[in-house]
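Alpha-1,4 glucan phosphorylase: structure, please.
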Amino acid sequence: MVDVTAPHASLSVEDLRKRITTNLQHRQGVGPKEATVADVYKATAEVIRDYLSSSWLDATRRMVEGNVKAVGYLSAEFLIGRQLSNALLNAGLTDQFEGAVKELGFEPKDVIATEPEPGLGNGGLGRLAACYVDSLASLGVPAFGYGIQYRYGIFRQEFDGQGRQVEKPDYWLSEGNPWGHEDFVRSQRVSFGGTVVDGENGARVWKPDWSVRAVPVDYLVPGYDSGRVNTLRLWTAKSYDEFDLATFNRSDYMGAVIPQVDAENITKVLYPEDSTPQGKRLRLEQQYFFVSASIHDAIRTFYAGEAQPDLTTLPDKICFQLNDTHPVIGIPELMRVLMDEYGIDWDTAWDVTRRTFNYTCHTLLPEALEVWPAKLIGELLPRHLEIIKAINAQFVEELESKGIDPEGIDRMRIFTDGPDAQIRMAYLATVGGSYVNGVAALHSQLLKDVTLKDFSAAYPDKFTNVTNGVTPRRFIKLANPRLSDLITEGLGSDRWIHDLDELEGLVPLADDASFVERFRKVKDANKRDFAAYASDKFGFSIDTGTMFDSMIKRLHEYKRQSLKILAVIAEYAAIKDGSADVDEIQPRSVFFGAKAAPGYAMAKLTIRLINNVARVVNDDPAVKGKLAVYFPWNYNIDLAEHLIPATELDEQISQAGKEASGTGNMKFALNGALTVGTLDGANVEIRERVGADNFFLFGLEVDDVEKLYADGYDPMKYVHADSRLRRAIDMVADGTFSNGDRNAYAALTSDWLTHDYFMTMADFTAYMDIQKEIEETYQKPDEWARKAILNVAHSGFFSSDRAIEDYLRDIWHTQPQR
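Here you go.
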C-alpha cells in the first residue's frame, strides 16, 4: 500500500468541468463543442488562476500583517516554463483536470502542450530563479520574485542550410497570456537622465529628463501542498505619453509614437546585444528599470497608507537577494530613495541598505562580472553616480583603516581611477550587502581564493556557500512520471516530493533484481517517448537501442562542446578506417542542445561545426547503427523535460575551475543518468554524494590548470601526443565537414592549435580513455542500472528546497510563515 501525501483539492471533476465550460462561454465566446484545444487551454488556465486567487490574496495579507521577514528575489531571468501542469500539481488539481478535459472531449496532454513557453531566461540562472520561487512557496516562505516581463524573451533558435544559428524573435505573448495579471494601479515611475542640483539644507535633488511607467504583471506561484501562493512580479515598460496627436496630424506618423517605442524597448528583449554603445545603454536601462520599480513596490507593499513610514525597519520587513550582478544598481537606488525621498541621513541609509541586500555570484570568469563605464551611468543615472562615488570613497577610507596597502586598495576599488573610470558591480554588491555566496562548494572556495580574494581576506565573515538545487516537482514528478511512480512504489510513500532526502531509501533497492529491471524498463520507455517526440518535432529518426548521450547547456568555450564534438569526430574516423573494433563499439546517439549569444562568434561557429558533423555522420552508411549526432534546435524547458528523463550519459565536461555550479548535472542525476565530468562546479559534490564508483571522472583538476597556465600552456604538445586528436582536427580543417571549404572553421582550428585557453587539447586523451570505461560499463545493463539508481538515491541534497533552507538559515535569517 502506497502512502500518498500529495495535495488533492476538494474541487470535483464535475465542478472543474462546469467552471471551464462557463469560462469558454463567457470569456472565450464559444461552447464546448465549438472550442479548440487552445480555447480549452486558455479557459483552464484562467479557471485555475481564479481558483488560486483567494489563497494568493490571503498569503499577501498575512505577509504584510505578519512579523516574518519576506524575501525579494531580484533576477533579470525567470525561466518559469509552462505554468498549467505545475499549477495543477501544486494545487492538487491534476486528476480533476484530466477528468474534466476528457469529459469535454479533449486530451489533457494536448491542452498542456498548447501553452507557449515563456522565454524569460537564458539558461541555468533563470531556471534556478524559477526553482527558488517554487521552493519558497512550497516551504511557506513569504516572498516576491521580481524581474522583467520581456515581450520577446530569449530568441527562438533556428539553423540555416549550412548549420548556422539564426536568431528569430520569440513571440510568446502573441496569443495572449492568461497567467499574467497586468496591474496598472500598482505601477511605478522610473526616471532617467537629467542633472543633479543643490536643494534645501544641502540636499541633492535629481531632476530627470524622462520617465517611463513600470507596470507590474503578476504571476501566481502556488506552493506544493503548502497552501501558500506567492507572487512573481515582472515589470513591463510603458510610456506616459504614448501618442503625440499634434505630430500625427502633421503626417509624421512614426514620430507620433516615438515615446511609446522608446519606453517599450526597455522590456522588449532579454539581454539586448551590447557590443554597441546603444546596446550597453539599453541593458543598463533594463537593469535599473526593474530594480527601481521593485524597491518602490516593496516600500508601497509594507508601508501602505503610512504618510511618514519608518524605513529604518525595512531590513526587518524584507531582504533582497541579488541574483548575479544584473540587479546590483539597486544598492545605490535604495540609498537614493532613503536619503532623497525620505530624508534619512547617509550613515543610517547605508546601514539599512547593507542589511537589506545579499549577493549571489554565479561566475568565476572575470568578463562575466559586470563592469559599467562611469560615463554611461553618469548620463543615465547622475544621482546614482554621485552615490557610488561616495560609497567608494567611504570604502577606501575603511580599507585604509584596516591597513590595506595602496596596491590592494586599487585592486578593490568599486570606482576605478582614470579618464575611462569603470564601476565594478560585483565589488559594489560585495561591499553593499550583508553576505556573498557562491553556488557550489568549489565555486565558493574559488570565489574566496581567486575571484574576490582581496574582499574575502578583508571581510571573511561575508562569504558563504549555498549549493544550487532544482525542484523535484517539475524535474521528476512532472517531467518523469514513470520514474516518479516507481520511486513512490519503491519507498512506499510520495513524501520524497516534500523531502528529497527520502530518496536514500532507494539504496537497498539498487541490489533488488526486480526493482533494477523495472528501473531499466522506465528508462527504455522514456527513450522511446523521446524518440517519438523528436521525430514529430524535429524529424529525427533515433535508434532507441543506442546509448543516449547528452550535452545540453549554453554554448560557451569553457563548457567545451568542442571537446565532445572532437571526440565524436575521432570515433567516426576510427569506425570509418577500421581501427575501431566494430564488435566492441557501443552504439550511441549523441545529443547537443545549446544556444549561443548572438554576438559570440566562436560559440556560433562551434554550433555550425556540430550541425555539419551531424550531417556527415548521419548520412554515412558506414556508421549507421553505430554512431549518430543530433542537435535539436531551440533548446528550452519543454525539450529538457523530454530529453533529461531519456538520457543515460550526461556530459559535464567544462574545464575545472570555470563552471560555477550547474543545475543540469543535478537534473540528470536525479533522473537516473550517469555523469562523465571533470571536478568542476557541483560535479564535485555530486560525485561525493553519489559515490566515486558511480561517476565517470576525467581530466585536469583546478591546481593542474593553474600550474599549466603559470608554466605556459602549449596545446600542440597534446595534439602531437595523440594521433586521434590530430586526425580529428585535420578533418575539421580539410573541409570534411564543410563541403571541402578549408576556411570554414579556420578560426576554431587556429584557436585549438595556438591558444586553447580552456585546455580542450590537454583533456582530450583522458576524455577518450574514460569513454572506454563508460562503454564497458554500459554493456553490463544491470550494473549500469544499479549505478543509475544510486545516483537517484544519493541526489536528494540537490533539491531547491534544501538550497532555500540554507538561505533561510545562513543568509536571510527568516523562516516560513505558518
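Notes: The radius of gyration is 27 Å.
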